């Protein structure tokens, strides 16, 4: 049996055993007390009945008749005078009986009383009933019953309780074994699944484990394995992309550096090659910087220092900064922002967001089209839209547009100068501000990025 089954089974066993033991202990004591009380009450009642007969007819024949009746039973009756002298006995009077009779109190109530009730140690239990005629005590009726009868009764009762206890334990062990298997079997399956996950086997499957907490745990494990599988694939793609992005500029740099070092290379060609090397170095530096920023964001070490910013002049300064580059590509940039809008943002980090979106719009817009930057407030939230009239994004690419190194137009990726990290950085920075970013697009009908703060 595995450890968890043993622990749960042992816990159930101890708990139920203690509960059953305590219950059976109190039940046993109560039954014994009740049976002994019934025997004592019956003995006293019989003595009182004999007393009633004698009070009506205190004659020799009546006394003999009472003695004859009790002689055929398991009890013994003794009639004494008020001074204690034995007048009649249904059987032989033993020393133990005489000892009990000597303990008779002076004033015995008319209802009688129990003289001896210690059935465990004494040989007899006993009662006394006074015979009162004309308001005068004419004698006492002593009733004796051997405690062996009660002891045999208790012994039989103990045997029944022992048998019931053994059967209860066996039944309890069967139930506990069944319950522990029912409870622990799903846990064992979950444990085996987590072991396979730890070994890299992420395509684990668990059967339906119900809708309780164990079922919820199993579903969480299944979702975790699925997410880890996705992350593993994304990591492999990410590493492959990094390898490609680093290898390409390094290949250019190494290749043109080798050519420039040749003695037969003219000065003009050397300048051209050095220019290419410089451009590739800039791209490589930009890539490493963006990777570094993303790594800091993932580790939550990328600080966001918010302050209240007046949005109209803030976005106007960004527009003025990027307008010359857009004009070189024959693109117009329009800003629409109310003068009274304010927002809690990190102006430096958020400028990076807007610049990345505008640069993305520039890359994928055709000449002589316009780009719109629209800022508004709706339901207490700030909405920022960057709208272009470019080629648009195919519907199948939209879900992955914010993934690292993902490019829609892979064939033109290097000619456009992108690293494939710009939109991933946008998403990270917007979420760091507590906002959301979404994209809508139609092919050949433009793209809209909307940020909601």
Automatic annotation (TrEMBL):
Looking at the record, the residues that make up the HAMP domain are 181-233
Q: What is the lineage of its organism?
A: Bacteria, Bacillati, Bacillota, Bacilli, Bacillales
**Topology in membrane:** Multi-pass membrane protein
Q: What is this protein called?
A: histidine kinase
TM regions (residue ranges): 6-27, 161-179
Does the keyword Mitochondrion belong to this entry?
no
Q: Which gene encodes it?
A: arlS_1
Q: Which reaction does it catalyse?
A: ATP + protein L-histidine = ADP + protein N-phospho-L-histidine
Residue stretches making up the Histidine kinase domain = 241-453
